Amino acid sequence: AGVKRAAQFINDASVNQGKWFPTGTGPDAGKTRALPEIWSKPKEFEAAQKVFSDAAPKLLAAANAHDAGEVKTRFGEVGKACKNCHDTFRSPEEHD
Question: What is the DSSP letter of 93?
Fold first, then answer.
């Protein structure tokens, strides 16, 4: 049940991600780890988001099917999609 809830949360996030970075929310708006490339390279950013939005429903389907092996595979794909976007469009976390 926990895996299904998490997969649903991830899927919902993949659907809503297009609303997260509207015009005017970049570095000029205040402190953010979002890189300016989100707004200066929108096509590349949309392509990275699409990888996530394509992978998330597959994870949800595997979770709903109770297929542990497929969940593991699809979770890896979602993780790669997240990492790709974060590596490209998010600055590293600052450590004090």
Answer: P
Separation of CA 9 from chain center: 11
60 close to 10: Cβ distance less than 8 angstroms: yes
Maximum distance among all alpha carbons in the chain? Answer: 45
Q: Phi and psi dihedrals of 91, rounded to 5?
A: -75, 155
What ranges in the chain are assigned the alpha helix state H? 2-16, 37-40, 42-64, 68-89
> C-alpha distances in angstroms, 31 versus 7, 22, 41, 50, 84?
30, 15, 20, 26, 22
What is the per-residue pLDDT across 37-86, written as a single tens digit (0 to 9) for each? 999 999 999 999 999 999 999 999 999 999 999 999 999 999 999 999 99
Return d(Cα 59, Cα 68) in angstroms, integer.
Answer: 10
d(CA 77, CA 52): 8
